[in-house]
Amino acid sequence: MKEFTTYNSVEDLDSESKYLVHKAKEATVHSYAPYSKFCVGAAVILDDGTVVTGANQENAAYPLCMCAERVVLYACASQHPGKKVIKMAVVAHKKNHKELMPASSCGACRQVMQEFEHRQHKPMEVVMLSPGEKWIKCSSAQVLLPYGFDASSLE
Ligand SMILES: [Zn+2]
Predict the structure, then answer these.
(1) Candidates 3, 26, 69, 117; catalytic one
(2) Residue range 84-103: average pLDDT?
(3) From ligand 1's centre to the CA of 152, what distance in Å?
């Protein structure tokens, strides 16, 4: 499988990815982004077909803000323990604008995605809109964070 596959339009994605993009967009309704006004939604599908969504949650104490990707992953670990995350889609738009904007997952989220892959012994695909306005499907979080920090670093 290619590490990165790009698509010119959301319509070119596979149907599961398109559905997750749709669910991620829906999830932005629950963004709490009064400061950045940058609403982010994430949707994942688990190995039993369950779809879980999350949205970014900001705080007046800025460092406490939490990205949609980590919100949804921690919700999965808490509410669906033992199930594997197969794929995640992440979308963003400015508050009160419907048009999606490019949003590439931050380094912290990539680190957490990678830990999930280690935990579940299975890669998760990640779908997002790149700054080049193309949709990207990554074959795993591993490719999003080469040489990342993991448990072996602690030995
Ligand atoms: Zn993040």
Answers:
(1) 69
(2) 96
(3) 23
pLDDT at 23: 98
DSSP string, 15-83: HHHHHHHHHHHHHGGG-B-TTT-EEEEEEEEETTS-EEEEE-B--SSGGG-B-HHHHHHHHHHHHSTTP
> Is 69 an annotated catalytic residue?
yes
Asked whether residue 91 carries a pLDDT value surpassing 80, the answer given is yes
Q: How far is the CA of 120 from the centre of ligand 1 (A)?
A: 20
* Residue 40: C-alpha distances to residues 25, 76, 96, 103, 147 (Å): 8, 17, 13, 8, 27
For residue 95, the model assigns a pLDDT of 96
Compute the distance from residue 14 Cα to the ligand 1 centre, in Å.
24
